[in-house]
Amino acid sequence: MQTSRINISEIFYSIQGEGFLAGVPSTFIRIAGCPLRCKFCDTPYAASAKAGKKLSISQILKQIKKYPTKYIVITGGEPMVCPNLLQLCKALKKYHITIETAGIKFVTGLKCDLMSISPKLSNAYLKPSDRNTYLKIDELQKIIQNYDYQVKFVIEKAGDIKEVKQTIEKLKKIDRAKVMLMPQARQVSEYTKRGEIVAKLCKKYGFAFSPRLQITLWGNKRGK
Ligand code: SF4
User: Fold this and answer.
1) pTM score above 0.90
2) What CATH number does residue 34 fall under?
3) Each residue of 191-224: b (16+ CB within 10 Å) or e?
4) Of 53, 71, 66, whose CA–CA distance to 9 is shortest?
5) Would 136 be classed as within a structural domain?
6) CB-based contacts of 83: which residues, under 8 Å, 6+ apart?
7) For ligand 1, what atom is nearest to the CA of residue 35?
8) What's the pLDDT tens digit per position in 100-123?
9) Which of 87, 107, 120, 216 is most buried, most CB within 10 Å of its CB?
């Protein structure tokens, strides 16, 4: 375990901005590397697997011990493609672990308390043929069957709800109470504008609204 090294983009202490745990002080471990290139990605600096600094698991543990929270968020990039994710989660067993993922790869046997899944709609990619790369229903299905989860869809326009419904219909036994909609935004002005659209959709279809406190509190500033 101690010799495993992981490409870490950054480790920082902040407030969880999204999902049902929004507002909870949490330590973020951002793993570098993501096979996708979403149009609205707010962490492009973590997209390349080479963008991080190689840290051993003991170095990671040493850093997170500084922060007064039991809540850890493993984010990215796409953490589920990290070869040493199993070892990292095992080493963090005394913490509450959220893994933030696009839901494109299932990994068995992880110690994970909450899979925070953000399946990509066509507003994330450039051409229709990208769909099979950005949305993998079989992998998504396995994740929601094997872990506690929340599913957050990024909404750009009201019409995106059609794809949300189509995606949900393809998933067996998904709990609609765990589905959230959140505005696509990197700036407060976009968040406010699209937030109104999203709130209307949430009321109409009964999904929860996910805030994005990292935008409203800190303007999406890195490390906040
Ligand atoms: S999946 Fe996440 S990290 Fe990867 S490109 Fe899309 S928004 Fe960025």
Assistant:
1) yes
2) 3.20.20.70
3) beebbebbeebbeeeebbebbbbbbeeeebeeee
4) 53
5) yes
6) none
7) 4
8) 999 999 999 999 999 999 999 999
9) 120
